[in-house]
Amino acid sequence: MRHTRKVTKIRFGKKDGLLTAFIEKSELNQLDPFVLWDHFAASEVIHSTGLDYHGHSGVDALSYPVIGKMRHHDSAGCHTTLASGDLQIMTAGSGIIHKDIMTPNNGQVESFSLWTALPAGQKEMTKPESCYFHAQDLPIIEEHDSTTKVIVGTYQAHSSPAHCSVPLTYLDIMLAPFGVWFYTPDTEQTSGFVFIRSGSIYVAGSQLFSRQMATLEKAALPIEVRTGKVGAQFFVVLGKPLHQPFYASPSSIHSSQENLSKAEQNILQLMATRK
């Protein structure tokens, strides 16, 4: 039997309206460098929905809509519309404000948000910027009983054009019933989790169901996922820990209180320009 990563915790998330958050501020060190994983979903939506301008700093924020379209506007000058399967990476750095509006498809909207903290020092206070990647530019690898889309990172020698400030792997996987998916990641990417969008999977003996997040043990080990009579769609997210302090506000993460305070002042100034 192969020695693979085990599940250390199953998270059910905290739902607030249309948003379910799976990482709490008190748990940031457990999933370093990941500081946010949010699932936004709604059905029977008639009008566009989302958040007006608000600010962030000290993070890479990855937006991945899977149903509907997302209109993105930010103070770094990025104004774009993401279709389902596209990717937006916003490096918040010293402070950025933005708004995202979801437009439904047949009454449904669904998207995922992933944040990583930025490395301490100059990088966390860098000039904000945004990058956009079309779905057709993200590699898709077809195997015997699985399809793996490389959102960020590398899988089976196929690399995404998207890069983040922290080494990470972000995969979107479809696995057929009675299937096996096996992956040996970079040995430095010891932190990570699995999220099940639909169906049910088994990870090292732990059964996981739809809309559950499983924290993986911190180890330089492969990951094996199996399905039973029901197939599944799930995400595997792995990264290299930063091993730095985290000072958090509701919208920002930094390695020092000084940088957090400076960035929050920058955000207030940017918000003032919207009034």
Automatic annotation (TrEMBL):
Residues 25-115 form the Pirin N-terminal domain. It holds the Pfam family Pirin. It comes from the Bacteria. InterPro entries: Pirin (IPR012093), Pirin_N_dom (IPR003829), RmlC-like_jellyroll (IPR014710), RmlC_Cupin_sf (IPR011051). Belongs to the pirin family. This is Pirin. The lineage of its organism: Bacteria, Pseudomonadati, Pseudomonadota, Gammaproteobacteria, Vibrionales.
